[in-house]
Amino acid sequence: MSNSEELERALARYVGAEIGPPAVGPDLVNAPMVRHWCEILGDANPVYTDPDVAARSVHGGLVAPPTMLQVWTMAGVALAGGGGPAADLQQELHALLSEHGYTSVVATNCEQVYDRYLRPDDRVTATTVIEAISPEKTTGLGTGRFIDTRTTYRDAKGERVAWMTFRVLKFKPAQPAQAASPAAAPAKPRRLRPLRSHDNDWWWQGVARGDLLIQRCAECGTLRHPPRPMCGACQSLRWDSVAASGRGVVYSHVVMHHPPIPGYGFPLAVALVELEEGTRIVSNVVGCAPDAVRIGMPVQLEMQDVDEELRLPLFRPVSGAAEEAR
Ligand SMILES: [Zn+2]
Question: What is the pLDDT of residue 259?
Answer without folding.
Answer: 81
